[in-house]
Amino acid sequence: FPTSGHSLSEKRGLLSLSGLNLKGLPSCAKVCVLKSALGTITNCGLLDIECHCQDDKYLRLSARCIITSCSVDDAVDAEMWAHHTC
């Protein structure tokens, strides 16, 4: 993660307040989505959901993280959240 002086929970709060609705996304997947969005793998702005939804590298790395971090049920829920969000 880039160091910006904010904890991950503070960043989650900022994302929620700024319009990125993480409701319905399993906790294990939230970590993956936020880690990918806050990292250096994407050229998208943090809150540019349209860009993230079209960024193949971001999507691949997020999906890989979700597959290794979540149960099958949570991974399916994450996929449904992504389809709804994008």
UniProtKB/TrEMBL annotation:
Start and end residues of each CFEM domain: 1-86
GO CC annotation: extracellular region; plasma membrane
Protein known as: CFEM domain-containing protein
Molecular function terms, GO-annotated: metal ion binding
Family: Belongs to the RBT5 family.
Keyword set, alphabetical order: Cell membrane, Disulfide bond, Glycoprotein, Heme, Iron, Lipoprotein, Membrane, Metal-binding, Secreted, Signal
Claim: Membrane is one of the keywords in the record: yes
Lineage: Eukaryota, Fungi, Dikarya, Basidiomycota, Pucciniomycotina
SMART domains registered for this protein in UniProt: CFEM
Localisation per UniProt entry: Cell membrane; Secreted
Pfam family, one: CFEM
Domain of life where this protein originates: Eukaryota
Organism of origin: Melampsora medusae f. sp. deltoidis
Bilayer topology term: Lipid-anchor; GPI-anchor
